[in-house]
Amino acid sequence: MSFTKDELERIVKSSLKKLRKLDKKLLDINVNERTITHKLAEYLQQNFPEFNVDCEYNRFEDLVKRLEFPKDKINGEDTEAKSVFPDIIIHKRGIQENNLLVIEVKKSSNINPADFDQLKLHTFRQEPYGYTFGLFLRIDLDGENDKLEWVL
Length: 152
Fold this sequence. Notes:
It comes from marine sediment metagenome. This is Type I restriction enzyme R protein N-terminal domain-containing protein. This protein has 152 residues and is of the alpha+beta class. It has one domain (5-151). Helices cover 32% and strands 20% of the residues. It is built from three helices and seven strands; from the N terminus they run H-H-E-E-E-E-E-H-E-E. It has helices spanning 5-28, 33-45, 115-125; strands at 52-55, 59-60, 63-64, 88-91, 101-107, 133-139, 147-151. A five-stranded mixed β-sheet has the order 1-4-5-6-7, with helices on both faces. Strands 2-3 form a two-stranded antiparallel ribbon. Helix 1 (5-28) packs across helix 2 (33-45). Mean pLDDT is 88; it is low at 74-82.
């Protein structure tokens, strides 16, 4: 099953709306981005019954995912999870040809630049991972002015 960017955008926006309706408290109290991405992934999964929606998935076939980045871009202790795992992916586990969408998420309260997230998205769209679409998503904690930036 294939999806267009417009179809994916509609699904992402619908899932964000559901997140706001059912889990607004998480946004109100400014929880960690990992908590928000987990809940968003649950709502995305409802729209992709034939795919797996995973958070911080760190496998490439049977190996640990590895991306080549300049050392100054990676925190050695990885307390910010900057190494290689994307926030959310929509794929079929173990089947590289079905890597549909990779998503990086930032909350509007996060003042860190999105450069590293953008770099990860561009890299995950290339071989050997080959995700069809990449999406940088900035979630507006104060309203519904989320920013979706597609990496094609």
